[in-house]
């Protein structure tokens, strides 16, 4: 039986989203004090939606004049070390980053600092179809995290239930996605909206679009020289997963194994894990909360 009204002991509802208690002070400091620069580039996602991949791709696009494939820091640092999460660092640390500053956050659009919204800084958002996201949340990632002390002893069904009720890190997941989706429609120069499934289908095509969006389009010379392909290969799941730096050790405050960020990376793996009634439940949430905004996802 599922216990109704479950509340995760390590999460707090802050400004209508579920924030990990451990990062709440940083989130508040970021909101209150952060001054965005027009050249800043902010990567945003919900956990388990392709954040690691986006960090590697965006880092490679933006720094390609400094590093080539043989000396990129991505060979010796995990993408989460190369591109910091704002909520895991105290915000003044960002002052040390060179322009364009590249950093990441899971914070929902309404709760971003005003200077991020008002300045000309740009946002790249990645999301993933909710069925694969919940599968990853409930079955793999949370089981991994369940070994840490602040995780409740919930069954998989209870994790699923709380996800559907919106109680998921930085969620409700539908509000997170539709918040950035609406902004991308209203301000296409401000927010670039990416889907994990589109990246899987045509990573090079999406790389070109992202490079144009941030004002660093690939030159003909680069295209002919195979730079786009090189970046796609470097950032592929296989390459990143096989790098020594990504095989062992922990990240994000020491609670998550590096290797748990690199798993299968398939679209549609949910068919192996979700029951028909779970799929029905999620589909009705998608129908109610996301379709009205014209949002569609490739599910397999
Ligand atoms: P799966 O659990 O379906 O394999 P995040 O980075 O937001 O935590 O998302 C993790 C998901 O992205 C995992 O999905 C992981 O395998 C996948 N992933 C990580 N790096 C990737 C890459 N370079 N290419 C494709 N998928 C990747």
Describe the protein:
There is one protein chain. With 300 residues, this protein is α/β, with parallel strands linked by helices. The chain has helices at residues 24-33, 51-62, 79-82, 114-118, 130-145, 156-164, 173-186, 196-201, 203-213, 220-224, 227-234, 237-242, 276-289; strands spanning 11-14, 17-20, 41-45, 102-105, 122-127, 191-195, 250-251, 256-257. A hairpin with a 4-residue loop joins strand 7 (250-251) and strand 8. It is globular. Bound molecules: adenosine-3'-5'-diphosphate. Adenosine-3'-5'-diphosphate binds next to helix 2, helix 5 and helix 12. Residues 45, 47-53, 132, 136, 140, 235-237, 240, 261-265, 269 line the site of adenosine-3'-5'-diphosphate.
Topology:
Elements: E1 11-14, E2 17-20, H1 24-33, E3 41-45, H2 51-62, H3 79-82, E4 102-105, H4 114-118, E5 122-127, H5 130-145, H6 156-164, H7 173-186, E6 191-195, H8 196-201, H9 203-213, H10 220-224, H11 227-234, H12 237-242, E7 250-251, E8 256-257, H13 276-289
Parallel strand pairs: 3-4, 3-5, 5-6
Antiparallel strand pairs: 1-2, 7-8
Helix pairs in contact: 5-6
This protein binds adenosine-3'-5'-diphosphate.
Adenosine-3'-5'-diphosphate binds at residues 45, 47-53, 132, 136, 140, 235-237, 240, 261-265, 269.
Q: What count of structural domains?
A: 1
Backbone shape? globular
Roughly what is the average pLDDT, rounded to an integer? 90
Sheet-strand content, in percent, reads 5-15%
CATH class: Alpha Beta
SS class: alpha/beta
The separation of the N and C termini measures 30 Å
